[in-house]
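Thread amino acids onto this structure.
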């Protein structure tokens, strides 16, 4: 099989998985909407770490707008996490030396 060692490959995959889990835990992104009136922080596991709403967003009295701003900020943070994890996973798979990847 041209030196293809399944046990070595499995060991590399386990190590890469553990590295990815650590990276997901350590990655934190911030996103905002409404010119910064709603700000969120999210980790690589897509857990919302914090949500900050400026008082003027609440004082406006438009609950639907506030809900839209929160939704937009959370979705933007999730998109940033997806991008960060995609580049991390792509780099990790390229380093495994698997033919065809």
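Threaded sequence (101 positions):
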């Amino acid at each position: 099989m041209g030196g293809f060692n399944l046990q070595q490959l499995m060991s590399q995959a386990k190590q890469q998985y553990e590295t990815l889990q650590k990276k997901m835990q350590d990655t934190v992104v911030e996103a905002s909407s409404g010119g910064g009136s709603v700000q969120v922080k999210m980790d690589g596991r897509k857990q919302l770490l914090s949500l900050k709403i400026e008082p003027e967003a609440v004082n406006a009295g438009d609950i639907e707008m506030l809900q839209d701003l929160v939704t937009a900020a959370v979705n933007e943070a999730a998109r940033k996490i997806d991008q960060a994890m995609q580049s991390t996973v792509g780099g990790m798979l390229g380093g495994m030396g698997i033919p065809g990847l």
